[in-house]
Design brief:
The chain is 40% helix and 26% strand. The chain is of the alpha+beta class. The chain has a four-stranded antiparallel beta sheet with strand order 1-8-3-6.
Amino acid sequence: MKNLTSDRWLDQCLPQTQAALLAQGRSRRYGKGEGIHQIGDPATELFFIRSGAVRFGAVNKEGKALIVRDLTAGHWFGFIGCYGSGIRPNDASALTDTVLVHVPLSAVEVAGKADPLLWRAVSGVLAGYVGHFYKTYENAVFLPLEQRLRVALAQLCKWQATTTLSISQSELAALLGVTKEAVGVNLNLLKADGQVDLGYRSVRCLWLET
């Protein structure tokens, strides 16, 4: 079984499984910047992003922010908390006006009885998370910051389905766990090499357009 992404994890299930899950969910609209859950909240439901985008991260006691990842419409989330410790491992907030469908675990249990392939799909998503975070750690150890930045930009472009990212240097620093100044230096190196165009709170990844 290959690792599955959070937007395609139900592809190997019966065609009616996703419809059955969403039918048991409740929709809720979130405004830009509104919190969805916090670290330590009980994990009792999965979420489907019907529209908009969600950012995951954390803030330490000193106020330093870490951005874990962003997800856009069509993705599901909440697996790690629901099928791990039972609590949310990160904070989640709406990047834009967003509509989520909250699907209770009881509905997932019912769907899993009707379609046992659902549990194989959940395992595939969790395996995908393990692979992603292992690769992120490996890159932090072995790659110079310029390459780590390039990898992170490519991943963000993939998640957001664009080559022009609306993101600040501070947000990139939070994503990579480095200083804003270090990000600025390495963005300018990429710009000098013709790989990116820089604007106010934006990065255009030129190498992805060729």
